[in-house]
Write a structure and sequence with these properties.
- It contains 6 helices and 8 strands; from the N terminus they run ββαααβββαβαββα.
- By secondary structure, it is of the alpha+beta class.
- The protein has one domain: Aminopeptidase (3-Layer(aba) Sandwich).
- An 8-stranded mixed sheet has the order 1-2-3-4-5-6-8-7, with helices on both faces.
Length: 194
Amino acid sequence: MVFCIRTERLILEDFNNGDIQNIRRIAHDPRVMRFLLIWLEDEEQIAGYLKRGIAESGAPNRMSYMLAAKEAETGAFAGISFIEIDPELSTTAEVGCVLVPAYWADGYASEILRALLRFGFDTLHLHRVYGKCDELNLAAARVLVKCGLRYEGTLREHVWLRDHWRSSSYFGILADEFNSPGKCPEPVRDPRAI
């Protein structure tokens, strides 16, 4: 049985073998890969990423939901998304998405993240969800803040990412904040994300 989450315009569903071409589209587009902290440098890594996503979908105690984002009406590939539970702290998960450029700046990333947050808090009963992005990726930081996540700090130059040392900005949200946005204090924003 294929797991899926429906949003207003998209279906987020388990990877299948046919998604290899879709992952290649992401891997071969330098605009998309510029800030992405996954290694899809060659066919072996691309196939391994897909294989991991398919394997996770069949895991008895599923900890990772690696999902293809596709248009609900046409089935056109929009990107990939995930929510992955921390194996050492099962009440915490990381969330994220990567879109092909045709789906940038039209609210798709926010739509995906809100759906994953709702799934994480309402279905998985998580306490905390976080997202991270390259500190230079201001568009991603804005989406995370727009979805209610608060800036928590930056891990400076912690990994070499293709052509530069990457610093990752972290954003998080707690279940109480998500379920009662009126109770949540104003998000602490990284000045670069405004």
